[in-house]
Specification:
By secondary structure, this protein is α+β, with helices and mostly antiparallel strands. It has a single domain, classed as Alpha-Beta Plaits (2-Layer Sandwich), CATH 3.30.70.20. Helix content is about 15%, strand content about 20%. The protein is globular, with a radius of gyration of 13 Å. It binds iron/sulfur cluster (2 copies).
């Protein structure tokens, strides 16, 4: 299962910027909001998080501590 960005549907106004931006077509319109479609092609560039004017997209990073 691919890890995908999170969208807060309560903030999204369906402006479509992320739909136009994403090279792997991870975003689709569902009624008056945008939803994320799971795809192995997402390269976690985080451009979608950066472009959303309403802060509705999050690309969280997991910090893993390695014992040395
Ligand atoms: S850029 Fe943000 S507000 Fe615009 S459609 Fe995407 S998630 Fe919604
Ligand atoms: S992180 Fe990049 S490739 Fe993945 S959904 Fe966002 S814009 Fe698309």
């Amino acid at each position: 299962m691919a890890i995908m960005p999170d969208i807060d549907g309560g903030k999204c106004n369906a402006c479509g910027l992320c739909v136009s931006l994403c090279s792997c077509n991870a975003f689709v319109f569902v009624g008056q909001v945008v939803a994320v479609v799971e795809t192995e092609l997402c390269n976690w560039c985080t451009d979608c998080e950066a472009i959303c004017p309403l802060g509705a997209i999050r690309c969280p990073f997991e910090i893993v501590f390695e014992e040395i």
